[in-house]
């Protein structure tokens, strides 16, 4: 009896239910993705065609030249270059120091380790806004405001990376490290040759999450970067909206260009994003 | 003759040093740029300090000023309102998505990715698009409401009453995919045998949901609610780009107030006092949730 119930039933009724489910899901996905459709559609319109009644979802003639014109309106190349540089530097340092520290927390037993780790985890729950003023004063005294260094230093040593990597290292059996120790490998050798190669999925998760977070970060650059030639794509887009607030089509063109790199990265590494979030959440 | 205790303590010292050598590169940055500022923020809350004058201890003066400052009080109320909308709506939407997408079927990966995608796109692009969608006279949202027969659709971000709901709706849309992933992980951790057992006992789908799914999701729900609360109280990017606190002060939130007082005005002491209040609020709410969770588990 129970086996029959748990196996997917066949017949016209089941088929109908399946079709209904797919319809609901497709409608839902469409509703969730509507804003992106609007964005792409508006980016290919003439400016006076964006806000119309009724909405024309497919532009009459596609204005591909919007994507060429925008580069002359704002220094998009500089903004993109700055964003790539910052995202890469922060991601590299976060993954390196995070995965290194995680080994100390997961595989080396010493006094005070767990207390220290608790302090790390506790800070993840503290809103950044609660201590951003002293950070700002510190950066001001060090004369690092309005440089990339301020953002790199502030974001590269986050506790999140340590936490994520440690959770993954805990799933690597200790016997493996023990065997390597017997073979005469030092702790640093075990980290570099055994643990690190085994944790590629976690490294990918951390790298992608950090990269995307830095790419999308608004508040950090907003506070620290005042010179136009240091701006990231987010600041550039925001200032463009402020300057040309009626230039709807062009604003959407800029938005598409700012989201496109992330969309590509997301499509390629989707499963690492989701695994990273699931593992960091599950054991917290 | 060897002295085992000394040998052991020497080995202990060696492993301690090795352990610390791994942690140190990250810890130096973490201590200097996170721990120290956290402690400094606490001390600064009780000081008067701007960029020109040396710091001076003033006790509770900053907190008293905070109680008299209309803007800060408005920001506090708006932040609470935002959290009140954002936390339950996002949690419910995320749970619904997870329940709907927790099945083995062709194409489920695509639907999950679609739900998650808004979360990885930048706040600026999201805020800019939704501002247009919410355009009172030409936006598709109000056109849709017209279609449904709503005579006077709201003015959304141009109206003091509807700006906050517009911001909340946008944030729910953006964040629900993230929490869906957490709920999905929670659903998959519920042992399949529990469902089988409930079925043998003759429980229908709704009873199985009440008796197996909801209790099984308890730890994840607790985590989601805590993360959402922290996230709500630090909202900044979305508001700055979408409404910049307006119209008037209708969507002014605490983080903006900290930014304006501390970084624009250079009132480090006062801004730190506001951030202390923000921190204490989050702390108290987290502790209440812990308390509820522990009570329920007994």
The fold-level CATH name of the largest domain in chain B is MetI-like fold
Approximately how much helix is present in the residues of chain B?
over 70%
Order of helices and strands of chain B: HEEHHHHHHHHHHHH
Distinct helical segment count of chain A? 14
Calculate the mean pLDDT score of chain B and round it: 87
**Mind telling me the CATH class of the largest domain in chain B?**
Mainly Alpha
- Quote the CATH topology of the largest domain in chain A: MetI-like fold
Broad structural category of chain A: mainly alpha
Number of domains of chain B: 2
The rough form of chain A would be described as: globular
Which CATH-level-2 architecture of the largest domain in chain A?
A: Orthogonal Bundle
Please, how many helices of chain B? 13
Low-confidence stretches of chain B: none
Report the count of strand segments of chain A.
0
* Number of structural units classed as domains of chain A: 2
Distance between the termini of chain A: 40 Å
CATH evolutionary superfamily of the largest domain in chain A: MetI-like
Mean pLDDT of chain A: 86
**Rg calc of chain B:** 25 Å
Strands of the biggest beta sheet of chain B: in what spatial order? 1-2
Commentary on this structure:
- The complex is a heterodimer of chains A (284) and B (298).
- Chain A is an all-alpha fold.
- Chain A has helices at 2-6, 12-43, 66-73, 76-107, 113-124, 132-141, 148-156, 159-169, 174-182, 187-198, 200-216, 219-224, 233-243, 248-282.
- Chain A folds into two domains: 2-67, no CATH class; 75-282, MetI-like (MetI-like fold).
- Chain A is built from 14 helices and no strands.
- Chain B is mainly alpha-helical.
- Chain B has two domains: 4-44; 62-297, MetI-like fold (Orthogonal Bundle).
- Chain B has helices at residues 4-44, 61-68, 70-101, 108-120, 123-133, 140-147, 163-188, 192-200, 205-216, 218-233, 237-242, 254-264, 268-297; strands at 47-48, 56-57.
- A two-stranded antiparallel ribbon of chain B has the order 1-2.
- In chain B, a hairpin with a 7-residue loop joins strand 1 and strand 2 (56-57).
- In chain B, helix 2 (61-68) crosses helix 13 and helix 3 (70-101) packs antiparallel against helix 10.
- Chain B is globular and about 70 Å long.
- Chain B starts with a helix and ends with a helix.
- Classes of the chains: A mainly alpha (284), B mainly alpha (298).
- Chains A and B meet through helix 1, helix 2, helix 4, helix 5 and helix 6 of A and helix 1, helix 4, helix 5, helix 7 and helix 8 of B.
């Amino acid at each position: 009896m129970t086996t029959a119930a748990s196996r997917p039933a066949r017949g016209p009724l089941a088929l109908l239910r399946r079709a209904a489910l797919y319809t609901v899901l497709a409608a839902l996905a469409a509703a969730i993705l509507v804003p992106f459709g609007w964005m792409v559609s508006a980016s290919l319109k003439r400016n006076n065609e964006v806000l119309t009644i009724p909405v024309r979802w497919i532009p009459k003639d596609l204005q591909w030249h919007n994507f060429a014109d925008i580069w002359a309106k704002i220094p998009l190349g500089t903004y993109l270059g700055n964003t790539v540089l910052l995202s890469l530097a922060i991601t590299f340092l976060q993954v390196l120091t995070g995965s290194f520290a995680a080994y100390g927390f997961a595989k080396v037993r010493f006094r005070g380790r767990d207390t220290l780790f608790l302090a790390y985890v506790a800070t993840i729950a503290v809103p950044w806004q609660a201590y951003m003023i002293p950070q700002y004063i510190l950066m001001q005294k060090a004369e690092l405001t309005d440089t990339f260094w301020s953002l790199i230093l502030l974001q590269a040593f986050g506790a999140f990376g340590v936490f994520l990597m440690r959770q993954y290292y805990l799933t690597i059996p200790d016997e493996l490290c023990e065997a390597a120790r017997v073979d005469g490998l030092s702790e640093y050798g075990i980290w570099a040759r055994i643990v690190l190669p085994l944790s590629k999925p976690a490294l990918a998760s951390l790298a992608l999450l950090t990269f995307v977070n830095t790419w999308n970060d608004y508040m950090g650059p907003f506070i620290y970067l005042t010179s136009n030639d240091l701006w990231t794509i987010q600041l550039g887009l925001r200032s463009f909206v402020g300057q040309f607030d009626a230039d709807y089509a062009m604003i959407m063109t800029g938005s598409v260009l700012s989201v496109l790199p992330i969309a590509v990265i997301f499509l390629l590494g989707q499963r690492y994003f989701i695994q990273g979030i699931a593992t960091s959440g599950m054991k917290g | 003759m060897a002295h085992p205790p000394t040998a052991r303590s020497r080995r202990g010292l060696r492993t301690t040093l090795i352990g610390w050598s791994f942690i140190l590169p990250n810890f130096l940055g973490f201590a200097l740029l996170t721990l120290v500022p956290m402690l400094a923020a606490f001390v600064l809350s009780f000081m008067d300090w701007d960029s020109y004058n040396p710091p001076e201890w003033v006790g509770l003066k900053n907190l008293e000023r905070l109680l008299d400052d209309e803007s800060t009080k408005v920001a506090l109320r708006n932040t609470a309102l935002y959290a009140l909308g954002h936390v339950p709506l996002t949690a419910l939407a995320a749970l619904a998505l997870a329940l709907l997408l927790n099945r083995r079927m062709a194409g489920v990966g695509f639907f999950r990715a679609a739900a998650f995608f808004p979360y990885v796109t930048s706040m600026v692009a999201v805020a800019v698009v939704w501002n247009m969608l919410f355009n009172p006279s030409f936006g598709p949202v109000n056109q849709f409401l017209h279609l449904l027969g709503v005579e006077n659709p709201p003015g959304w971000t141009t109206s003091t009453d509807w700006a906050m709901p517009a911001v909340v709706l946008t944030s729910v849309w953006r964040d629900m995919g993230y929490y869906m992933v957490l709920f999905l992980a929670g659903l998959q951790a519920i042992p399949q045998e529990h469902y089988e057992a409930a079925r043998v006992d003759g429980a229908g789908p709704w009873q199985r949901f009440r008796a197996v799914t909801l209790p099984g999701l308890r730890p994840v729900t607790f985590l989601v609610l805590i993360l959402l609360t922290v996230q709500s109280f630090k909202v900044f990017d979305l508001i700055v780009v979408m409404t910049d606190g307006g119209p008037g002060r209708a969507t002014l939130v605490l983080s903006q107030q900290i930014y304006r007082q501390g970084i624009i005005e250079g009132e480090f002491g006062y801004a730190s006092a506001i951030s202390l209040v923000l921190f204490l609020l989050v702390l108290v709410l987290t502790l209440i949730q812990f308390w509820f969770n522990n009570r329920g588990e007994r």
